[in-house]
What we know:
0% strand, 75% helix
Amino acid sequence: MATEGQEHPISTYFWIWGLLFVLSAFSYMVDYMAFQGYLRWSLILIFMFLKAGLIVAVFMHMMWERWALIYAILVPTLAIGVLIALMALEANYVFGTREMFFTDWRQFFQGGGHH
Length: 115
């Protein structure tokens, strides 16, 4: 835990800056290598979360903070992430059931009625 007025070596910040640069280069390489589908988005999200984690941990000094403050920031963020994932799964389910059981909405409004 950092005490008031404590300074960290500048080399720490240069190492993190270098890691951010490398992770950004990897992120751009995903586009350059023309990855597609789930692999593309998984890699982009992994690199994004790694970069965000480094920034929060070092530049926002969370690495040196009390656990209560860390939990106050991480737990709600993780809870929102889980809820977003659950909503995405539910949306896919709802879309699939509508596609399977309902008629095409354009036919309904064009007077096509039920078949």
